[in-house]
Amino acid sequence: MQSEFSKVLKDINLALFKVITKHNKELGIQITPIQGTIILGIAHKEEELCQKEIEQFVSCNKSTLSTILDTMEKNELIKRTPSSFDTRKKVITLTEKSKQLVTQIELDRKKTDALLMQGLTEEEQSLLLTSLKKILQNLERM
């Protein structure tokens, strides 16, 4: 049961990545799903965000995130500027180019969520979300 469960979660993750990538291409948005998550995360935070804070909400390691942020900076989706609180840190902010994508990304994520929950009652959706959050907490304790 457990190995099947892990496989299903992995397959869902891969399928979700493919769906979001396909939707982004259809919308003419040249970003990866993780870049979209970073853009939305930055857009919805009021305080300054450095790489360390972004690592926490995208759940990836420092070197992987650094590579992603380098690509995003090269593609003019983010900029890095010295922090006003700690000059050793770089604050990551959105560019005008990425700010213009926020609404489209949000709408696509809502559409994708609706597709994921299609055929489930509200009670099933709530139970599924609660269970998945518990599973995530279990993984975070490891």
Number of strands: 2
**CA gyration radius, whole angstroms:** 17 Å
Q: Would you tell me the structural class of the helices and strands?
A: mainly alpha
CATH superfamily: Winged helix-like DNA-binding domain superfamily/Winged helix DNA-binding domain
Query: Total domains, how many?
Result: 1
Helicity range of the residues? Answer: 55-70%
The shape is globular
CATH class: Mainly Alpha
Widest sheet: strand order?
A: 1-2
CATH architectural designation: Orthogonal Bundle
β-strand percent reads: 5-15%
**Mean pLDDT reading:** 90
**Major sheet characteristics:** 2 strands, antiparallel
> What string, H for helix and E for strand, traces the elements in order?
HHHHEEHHH
Task: Note down, in words, how this protein is organized.
This protein has 142 residues and is mainly α. It has one domain: Winged helix-like DNA-binding domain superfamily/Winged helix DNA-binding domain (Arc Repressor Mutant, subunit A, Orthogonal Bundle). The chain contains seven helices and two strands, in the order ααααββααα. It has helices at 2-27, 33-43, 51-58, 62-74, 96-99, 102-117, 122-140; strands spanning 78-82, 90-94. Strands 1-2 form a two-stranded antiparallel sheet. The radius of gyration is 17 Å and the shape is globular. The relative contact order is 0.11. The mean pLDDT is 90.
